[in-house]
Amino acid sequence: MLMYNEDIKGFFSSREELNMPDYLTLEYYLECVGDIETALAHFCSEQSTAQWKRVGIDEDFRPRYAAMVIGLDVLGELPQLSYSVPHSETGKIHACRVTIAHPHRNFGPKLPNLISAVCGEGVYFTPGVPVVKLLDIGFPQEFLSAFDGPKFGIAGIRDLLKAYNRPIFFGVVKPNIGLSPEHFGEIAFQSWLGGLDIAKDDEMLADVEWSTLADRSCELGKARIRAEKETGEPKVYLANITDEVDQLINQHDIAVKNGANALLINALPVGLSAVRMLAKHTKVPLIGHFPFIAAFSRMEKFGVHSRVMTKLQRLAGLDSIIMPGFGSRMMTAEEEVRDNIQECLQEFGHIRPSLPVPGGSDSALTLEAVYRKVGSVDFGFVPGRGVFGHPMGPKAGASSIRQAWDAIEKGLSLDEYAIGRPELMAMVAVENAKKQHS
Amino acid sequence: MLMYNEDIKGFFSSREELNMPDYLTLEYYLECVGDIETALAHFCSEQSTAQWKRVGIDEDFRPRYAAMVIGLDVLGELPQLSYSVPHSETGKIHACRVTIAHPHRNFGPKLPNLISAVCGEGVYFTPGVPVVKLLDIGFPQEFLSAFDGPKFGIAGIRDLLKAYNRPIFFGVVKPNIGLSPEHFGEIAFQSWLGGLDIAKDDEMLADVEWSTLADRSCELGKARIRAEKETGEPKVYLANITDEVDQLINQHDIAVKNGANALLINALPVGLSAVRMLAKHTKVPLIGHFPFIAAFSRMEKFGVHSRVMTKLQRLAGLDSIIMPGFGSRMMTAEEEVRDNIQECLQEFGHIRPSLPVPGGSDSALTLEAVYRKVGSVDFGFVPGRGVFGHPMGPKAGASSIRQAWDAIEKGLSLDEYAIGRPELMAMVAVENAKKQHS
To answer: What PANTHER family has UniProt attached to this entry (chains A, B) (predicted)?
Structure first.
């Protein structure tokens, strides 16, 4: 629809004029080509009432159904778009930070329809707005109240493990692909003996012919009970049930019956809505992994900010969220990792906190840095090769992690605390060798 | 795992050395930092066997479980990464086109696990490979055979409509958000009378309090029967059942019982696996819409190429795929639109062709250009405001589309053919007014 001046005004409003409980608030970074207000009116129109009246009838659906600009910060003019994108408009280019009130009555409290609204065709195909990043979504309690969120949350995971006032120690059993269920179980068993709370399947290992979920969860369920008896501590086997969505409930039931007491799910690959379905059904904590998210969150000024995905994963009901962690190894700015951790922990209506698990090439040597950056004990620590590639084996690998935590608690350096503790010493030695080598 | 020279070799092979039916072939654009072969070995390792032996045991999981480089084209050295991404490696930067053989036994014929493998953590978090675009996936018949693909395909849609040797004429009922089911039905009815084959819900309109799917499909089902009686032609009401995945089967059943004879689903927002589930169940053709895809496909050198998503949507069972169409309005290069159309139509094992629907601000005025660019009649044409914003109303809007097709068939210009046809003339006049205005 051609936009005239009076049309454009219908897409601008303010928090004072609107009944805000009826609206989500969407924060976008936009690069607008041509007149900014025209582009923004189109941006609102395209994601809501693209044609707001029938031909020949005097009506206006905008007051009830239009998305509206309620905040605009023009960041400056740009010599060119930050990314080359074909587009139809001409004129000056401005970078803008925009707040939009989007009426949730247009779709209701449903994740697929929410996603279609806030990062759908309207958002990414508005004339004059070729570059878009969705930065955040604010939900009124009226919308949130339809969601249950995590069934267990951080407190539930801690109660299950009787582990308080410290991080939760995960480990990704490695070799991640190729081990028989029996060998997999033996390695997990060793890691539990060494001090891991949670031995987990890799996000790439699910139900395959050479290691069916049924066989693996059976072996691991038995190994877990043995480890609990031997250590006197509760342990968790985190089984990856990522599968076609019509199999998820069945896979949950098989894994839990066999002794998996938490379940891993690749949230975006199955879809956030499938996570929500599973969360309603689950008898054990659900932990999400992050495949696919980088494909639309890594660009600084395009796509969707990862914090939005963390928020939606929590909303969908994940009790814990594994995410790219600190350090350039994980190609994520430190501020972004902090944002994602905060999304797990901060107040969010009646929705329980999720345990954040910032991960990526961790070991006894990185624990203190992660802990300092997180700033609390409410996180999960998830080495893979740092435990299972330990030169003395997985039990020693797990011990090295717990020894590193003991050192932190006692305020001692790793070098100091490693004396007389060969498991930790072996890791310190690796690091020292690397330093000499470089 | 540290990579030594002999380790790197384990991730390189050739089509001749491998049993290719065991492998998917993945095409990537990569920007590698530092030694190219080391980076590529990591790239393969991270997406498959990140640790390929147990500590202290002489074994090697790579021959059976490793992804391997089977093709490498170094495109050239770059002065810097195409996009600023934090990363840990240093050295020269090279743009590469890489073909990787990825063993599908690592995950099996399951869409969420496939997605986790080909655009998961391994792919986007490999040291030395901060910039990645997945360009294509090749499937051996051994993998494809587990999929049913579209139940109806192009032939099924044509048979339903008894419409052959011409494009299929869709229209998105507008106003898209805000109409009562009764008014929505009346407008769709008019558009069918004017000559549309398929009147469709907007991708943003699903099951909402003010227009429940039950009420709307009931009104539209009745209106469709009336239109079929009046015109003597089969008509389709395409109902949008996008919803939480545990509601999809139920929504299918409600809509179909009430007279919807095709269903719209926002594929990525519900998840491709949910589409596959629905395709197994459906009694009517399934048409997919494209929200969210632009968020990870628009960057030229990062993310996932849209052709991969078209291929996966076809594999999941969509009988027709709506996609961003031609022209800078839709911010998609012409070659990319052609790639996506081809993905719908080309030979794909036993998987039926899907009807491609390249869309975006179409009208009687754009039909010929789209037809010429598609190069065949096997496409759907999907105006919104071009039909429902027509100055003489939706019946005239639909007529203008059919008149435009008649003109093409007769080899006449629109200007010529519009004489004595006020519906088409009104559209031609709009265009002429615009030309004068600009």
So the answer is: RIBULOSE BISPHOSPHATE CARBOXYLASE, RIBULOSE BISPHOSPHATE CARBOXYLASE LARGE CHAIN
